[in-house]
Amino acid sequence: MKQLLRYGFFLGTLFSGCTVYNAATTPSSYQPGLYSATTGQRLLSDSLPASSVQWPDYRVLRFEHKACTDTFRLPELHEPFRSMKSPYPPGAVWVDNANAWLDEAEISNQEWRQYELQQVKAGVPAAALAPSAAAQPVPDYYTNRFYTYYPVVGISYEQAQAFCKWRSQVVTALLNQRNHVALADSLNPAYVRCRYRLPTEREWEAAAALQSKLPFGTACPTLPVQLVPAAAAYLRQRSGSTKPVAEIQADIIAYNKTRPTLAVITCAREAPYFLRSQTPGYVYQRPVNYYGLYQLLGNAAELVQEKGVTKGGSYRDALSDCRIAARGTYAGPAPHIGFRAAATVSRPTP
After folding, report:
1. Which of 79, 91, 169, 225 shows the greatest Cβ crowding within 10 Å of its Cβ?
2. How far is 206 from 9, CA to CA, in rounded Å?
3. DSSP 8-state assignment for residue 212
4. Which domains does the chain have, with CATH numbers?
């Protein structure tokens, strides 16, 4: 947790001027804000979410983390930025074993919408940018602000790569703007190049704590849970239930009295109707893994560099299919497949 707070604080002070100015306005697991979590840019007005995040899942599902007796711990992280020689890529967490940065969360509908709007304004045809309408979990998944902070899905491998290329250009420009270095001056010792790409399968597995030799990177893939009854309307929409909100609320109260346990991974859980989902969930759902990464297992299956392969399983898959070693396959855009990026930061070689 200290590591995660450290990343959030630095991200809030990474850029100067009118770009990002403090952690309170920088989107994160704690404060989705007015700035992009993937580039640090101020969000375009057309892409701003509704004023409320509407019951993010980490507030609805209250897992009892103290019930976990997990004894596995990662060694102390090497922090390449400690000497301030390596700036943080926005929204990313350093993964030692992968020797790379990984996005702390899956790319959300919000972040993809920001990208799409900017590219359309730059003259790129909208048809090449939009997620596949035929590969959405529900028809309005990409357009309904209820799903603002849910993972973008229904995109192709090539679209994910194009997003990473665009993001590399934007973040590199912003990092050098902060250092008052012209983009053309790439041999300047202060010049910073940030390159985003899909992680390799090996990098992804390292980020999932494969070295723990535990199938899910933790000894506690299920935990005791309590639900917030006041979130009944939210769960009604998430589950697609047609029952009255008052009835769902009563069912939640009854469920809590059974002292239930639940998979912490967003998968096809064995759970009551109000916990079943037609879509993946909030990208910042807790708990995080050992590196501070959200929803690495489950939620949306994630694209990797190896084309045709996904990792982590999804909300449609059984818990056993969300193991670190498991592999998914695909032939094109699908309603359960999203992605997160890896990043490297470099300076000119002396």
Report:
1. 91
2. 25
3. G
4. 2-219+282-346 (3.90.1580)
